[in-house]
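Dear H.,

Thanks for agreeing to be a second pair of eyes. The structure we're designing against is below in token form, covering all 82 positions.
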């Protein structure tokens, strides 16, 4: 997956989509420091949208009952050597 050094990257794996059209997203931290992101129940706040038949981007119906907290992906680590 493309993850340039020194950047935080959000990558959508369209090739890994399931039959229902759910696309995995990967948040990759290639910086030297932890990067905090607001999240809820372990899900980073990312706005979900879909393209309707007329080509307009729309938000689907919102979910409720979630509690917010902060998610902090760590920076890359040195590989563990056997």
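And this is the sequence the design step returned. I haven't edited it by hand at all.
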């Amino acid at each position: 997956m493309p993850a340039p050094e020194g950047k935080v990257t959000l990558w959508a794996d369209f090739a890994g989509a399931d039959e229902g059209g759910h696309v995995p997203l990967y948040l990759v931290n290639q910086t030297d420091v932890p990067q905090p992101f607001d999240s809820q129940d372990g899900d980073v706040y990312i706005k979900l949208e879909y393209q309707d038949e007329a080509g307009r981007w729309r938000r689907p119906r919102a979910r409720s009952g979630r509690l917010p907290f902060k998610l902090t992906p760590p920076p890359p680590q040195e590989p563990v050597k056997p």
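Two observations from my side: The longest strand covers residues 8-12. Residues 8-71 form one domain.

Warmly,
E.
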